Amino acid sequence: MTAHLLILLLSSSVIQPSNQEKGVLVKTSQPQQKTIHLKGLYPAEILPLRQATIASEWSGPVLELLANEFDTVEQGQVLVRIDTEMLLLNIEEARANFEFAEKQWVRFQGLHKKNAITEQALIEVERNFKVRKITLERLEIQLRKATIRAPWSGTLLKKHVEIGDYVVPGQPLFELVDNAKLRIRGTVSGRDTASIGTGLKANLVFQNSAEVIQTQIARISPLLDSGTRSLELEALISSPPHSIRPGMVAQLEIDRKTIENTLLVPLSAILEFENGKGVYLAKDGIAVQTEVKIDGIIGKYQIIQSGLTPTDLVIIEGQTQVSDGSPIIIDEKK
Fold first, then answer.
1. Residue 295 CB-half CA count within 13 A
2. For residue range 72-126, what is the model confidence (pLDDT) as tens digits?
């Protein structure tokens, strides 16, 4: 009886191995293999196709204003007429001088053929004729410049003059904008520039609107901004809806690249090791530290460029409780 009690007491005093000694309880998952489309969302501003300041090319008081702010105008449409009363008198005088010089030139050519005048006299008359012609042509150009026309079709913005204002060459009269097409200027962060190229599809999206406008990258700056290390690019929108206007702030969603059969693991599985980022794999009952090369992020998943295979068992729970070579127990519960 005493011997049996002694045996029982000794057996009960033996320390049973704990779960920690058996191994850390972890959950694993194989990487997901998918074809993914990497997208980037970048700040963008909406600009008109072109914008110009229409300025006076002649001096004088404004005689007529034939357009107003926010008017839509056609190419060649008259916008402003500047008083040309004195200019017309100068043209009339110049035309009379030119016609006289022309007749004199014709007459002297006939006299020269008959050797009635010297070569020098003919040269002087020819010079006078050319000077009178140039003077008349210059005044006629000035007359045309006194009538200001729209250089291309668009919408007038600011008006800088009123009837009666005295204007001089270079003085702004109107601001003209062309909204037939819109330019979308976006800024791409430096780390994404390698995957950006002309022709890439893009969507113009707005923070407080469900409207999405499809476009594509048309132009890319050849240089990075020296201060921000970012890259500027432009997309075009033809026949934009009335709800989209220059000055609005939006975002460009760009399809940067497509990766086929890529591997994805949960973000939480990625750890920072001494030599870079990596994961723990479950192999033969132990945790194996494995370095990986990563790419972008898709939702809650990290894109893996290299370091894993589709059949690897990645530790996705309990990974912070193990180290390289730690014994593990895989929790088979879903």
1. 21
2. 999 999 999 999 999 999 999 999 999 999 999 999 999 999 999 999 999 999 9
Domain that holds residue 315: 19-36+260-330
Q: Say if residue 127 is in the same domain as residue 209.
A: no
Please state, for a pLDDT cut of 90, what percent of the chain lies above it.
74
164 and 74, same structural domain? yes
Per-residue model confidence as pLDDT tens digits over 62-71:
999 999 999 9
CA atoms within 13 A on the CB side of 66: 15
184 Cβ contact partners less than 8 Å away, ≥ 6 residues apart: 44, 45, 46, 47, 204, 215, 234, 235, 236, 237, 250, 252
Query: Can you name the residues that pair with 81 across neighbouring β-strands?
Result: 64, 147
From residue 69, give the alpha-carbon distance in Å to each of 156, 159, 173, 174, 242. 5, 6, 11, 8, 18
How far CA 322 is from CA of 16, 92, 144, 236, 285, in Å, comes to 22, 100, 86, 53, 12
